[in-house]
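Below is how a single chain appears once it has passed through the pipeline. First comes the sequence as given, then the structure the pipeline wrote out for it. We keep one example in the README because the format questions we get most often are answered faster by looking than by reading.
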Amino acid sequence: MGISGGAFMRTPLWLALVLLVGAARGESASTYRAMAPVDRYLIADRNAEIALARSAAPPSISTEATVLVLGRHGYETAVKGSNGFVCFVERSWMAYFSDSEFWNPKTRAPNCFNPPAAASVLPVYVKRTEWVLAGLDRAQLIARARAAFEAHRIRTPEAGSFSFMLSRQGYLGDQAGGPWLPHVMFFVAPRQVVNWAAGLEASPVVGQPGDPFEPTVLFIPVRRWSDGSPAPLAADLRHKM
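Resulting structure:
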């Protein structure tokens, strides 16, 4: 995203929470030590990727959204939308740089950003993806991210930055083994976790502060998938993991 905006992600909250569940049970994610061949991260059928991206949000939103698909050099606009939302399928390299699933080629995380997030957070996703597909390793990615921050090319997410992750078709990491829970995410300024009561006992909001060059993301599980069908209870799904 020519870092003209955004803030680099820590572990996406969908993945962070999956890992937390596993850690509580004494489990750890599979280790992916290096990037797999590029073809393993691509979806051969462009229309299938468009459909998967749209599944991140209800049709009332995703039908008129811009849709990005992953090509060999980065994300490309496959469909130009009209409502300001942008839907795409995340790959594993948007996790923590230290995450053991950072290079997991199976990860497919449908996401749909609202206009403020598309303007201020999405550019970072796009740029990191370009760096990855240009062949940078993890150490080089970290160096690029820090340099962008120090050059003031990363800014705080715009107020109201938000995304839908309501697809029941994704694969959100090996411990989830599938889509995990439908949820929405808010991208907020650093040090805002306390203001949202994130992570407190019985709070429905989970939050994780980012480093200076990464965003703070708030995660809120919801009860229905994008197709309107009911989602399993969190306790039920954890039991299956």
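The chain has seven helices and eight strands.

See the next section for the split statistics.
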